[in-house]
């Protein structure tokens, strides 16, 4: 029987496989765009092209050889070292290749045997990244090397902190997965354990949500750092005080913006609407605010006897409502929408419908890395609390999203 941990492991393996070539493509594009500014020398450009070509060959070979190895060995270590040598050289030529070097942070634990060797591999990757953050090997004396040393220490302190959290989370995930299996077997003999099983299932899904949040914060901060590096590199190449002041101001604004985005992502973990209101009240405010913002008349209907639901149940239903209405606003071109929340015997149902353009539910496009929460995300939220989500849609006939979850009351 497949467990939530198996699904997480498959996704992680796919990410580790695609991250190096994807980051290589991103770094190469940024390097090409900034080649005249950062690497105007012809020999540096030629060396960079040769190294990128070598990395492409190495990645193609690893796509064939990598899946054949279930554990770290001499071949995986050789691949890792060759990739580091070429990537570090590229990062010194053009700082944007630091994005490619960041791939080592993700797959070092799967390619390098031994805990000490893994730590050394992570440290080795932080060196060219720190050089890239200061614009290359410092040539302006002791100050540049001091800044480099501080960045190297900061990067490794952050790596150590995140690594400890990841190890603890992995141990907790394994423990939670084992507990869920035991509860599933016991449920056949004792229906009273159903509510406890939901709580454990929710805890097992925390790992997925934290990884999603970590990726969002990483992408936001990484974009800000890229902009900051670009501004500071311009500062290094000019003596005009006005130009220096302008680019330093821009770098400062980018840093503040990145910090604000990180805080916003953390705050979005729990719906603010449930802090003081029950689910019907919070959902009414959500519907009213969305209707006012979009100009689409929308009504909320509550049927049955409303109960104070478990916090995770309420949060899931409110998140699904927010995402479904967001999809209506983005894609449906609707003139009217409706939301129905029904409390029934043993379950709660949520229906969001609109009279918009609809779509062919059987031919949805593949989800891209730049996409939003989406139908898959809503379905995943419902399934984490032992619920389900269905979508009914036809071109020109509107769309209906229906979620069914267990009715678990908050006993506090």
In short:
With 412 residues, the protein is α+β, with helices and mostly antiparallel strands. 67% of the residues lie in helices and 8% in strands. A hairpin with a 3-residue loop joins strand 2 (337-343) and strand 3.
Q: What is the ordering of alpha helices and beta strands?
A: HHHHHHHHHHHEHEEHEE
- Low-confidence parts, pLDDT < 50 over ≥5 residues? 368-373
Cα distance spanning the termini: 34 Å
Could you give the count of β-strands?
A: 5
Largest sheet: 5 strands, mixed
> How would you describe the shape?
globular
Based on helices, strands and strand pairing, what is the structural class? Answer: alpha+beta
What's the helix count? Answer: 13
Strand content is 5-15%
Overall pLDDT, averaged? 78
Please give the order of strands in the largest beta sheet: 1-2-3-5-4
Percent range of helical residues: 55-70%
> What value does the Rg take, in angstroms?
25 Å
